[in-house]
Specification:
Length: 162
Amino acid sequence: MRSGVAETSEARPLLTQYLTEQNLLFPERVDGWRDAIERVSAPLLADGAITREYVDAMLTSIAGGGTYIDLGYQIALAHARPESGVVRTGLSAMWVRPAVLLNDEAAHPITLFVCMAAADSTEHLAAMAQLGSLLSDDAARESLLAATDPAAALAVLTAGEH
């Protein structure tokens, strides 16, 4: 089953490697997109994966018209450049209900915020590819969006590994 440790660790999906129960958030209330970015990045800030500068860079980017982080399907991928404060790769996610308007724009309602801090472009691309694969599967995407707690979210993420 294991042809080599390096191969196995490289093949391990970044999503479940970094998205643990502690990084999957289901708050009762979120007060707008700025609060959502602050809260989704909090686990990464707390464990030292990012600095405060990274959170500020995400907020500044979105406020400057950065609705490009809206991936569609009410999912946003919050991120900034690695040099803006990434210490090590990390991911966190937060489900919000009702939807939050990204940059206060009605065209960008978001119910799932994913915060990605990639230490380098290789990990950035790998995480993006894995997220893209998951989100292109209609059933998996709908199940992920419907998750109401960390266990349900992890079940969807884990199922997507196989």
